[in-house]
Design a protein that fits this description.
The structure holds two protein chains of two kinds. Chain A has one helix and eleven strands. By secondary structure, chain A is mainly β. Chain B is built from no helices and twelve strands. Chain B is globular and about 45 Å long. Classes of the chains: A mainly beta, B mainly beta.
């Protein structure tokens, strides 16, 4: 079956702009989690959606937001981009309400965002 | 609350040598433990997972890990390193009361010398 698909793979944006990243989970997976990965901070949890509801949110400013659609696809949006937002953004899907913490996530290949 | 500590942000081994990557966790409830591998500009791929069935867990690519409750450890090993094992490795912990969240360690970059 198809894996987790993230689009686009690479993105270059200018400070102050906004960006939307997309994630399509594995078919049947209803939970989507987002992580930001940087060399200095490692993997940091952004938020998790299950059945179109945000269930958990990490410690990020309100410029970072997300949503999930009825087909489980998810988007995350970053407004007013800053240089420090340059990172690899990873999406992970899991089965059911607790599948991620019990069985693990399946990750997409990520979106590499560069802010200039 | 859960946390994961990976000792050694960089580990270097010679090809054919033993690989040992260390992971210690903290969890107030029985944990589920995972090792992931990440190649450059890729997402994380699940290597193996401990979900209380057996303390010695075998994963893909010849890796295995042993859950030691008394030491709160879940170290990753491979008897003989290959050049293709060069990557970053992440240990993660989950639990029944963590919602759907995994907590990741800081990662260990494995370098394999010819």
């Amino acid at each position: 079956k198809a894996g987790v698909t993230q689009t686009p793979r690479y993105l270059i944006k200018t400070r102050g702009q906004q960006v939307t990243l997309s994630c399509s989970p594995i078919s049947g997976h209803r939970s989507v989690s987002w992580y930001q990965q940087t060399p200095g901070q490692g993997l940091q949890f952004l938020f998790e959606y299950f059945s179109e509801t945000q269930r958990n949110k990490g410690n990020f400013p309100g410029r970072f937001s997300g949503r999930q659609f009825s087909n489980s696809r998810s988007e995350m949006n970053v407004s007013t981009l800053e240089l420090g937002d340059s990172a690899l953004y990873l999406c992970a899907s899991s089965l059911g309400q607790t599948g991620g913490s019990i069985y693990g996530y399946t990750f997409g290949s990520g979106t590499r965002l560069t802010v200039v | 609350a859960q946390s994961v500590t990976q000792l050694g942000s960089h580990v270097s081994v010679s090809e054919g040598a033993l690989v040992l990557l260390r992971c210690n966790y903290s969890s107030s409830v029985p944990p589920y433990l995972f090792w992931y591998v990440q190649y450059p500009n890729q997402g994380l791929q699940l290597l193996l997972k401990y979900t209380s069935a057996a303390t010695l867990v075998k994963g893909i690519n010849g890796f295995e890990a042993e859950f030691k409750k008394s030491e709160t450890s879940f170290h990753l090993t491979k008897p003989s390193a290959h050049m293709s094992d060069a990557a970053e490795y992440f240990c993660a912990v989950g639990s029944d009361n963590a919602g759907n969240m995994l907590t990741f360690g800081g990662g260990t970059r494995l370098m394999v010398k010819p």
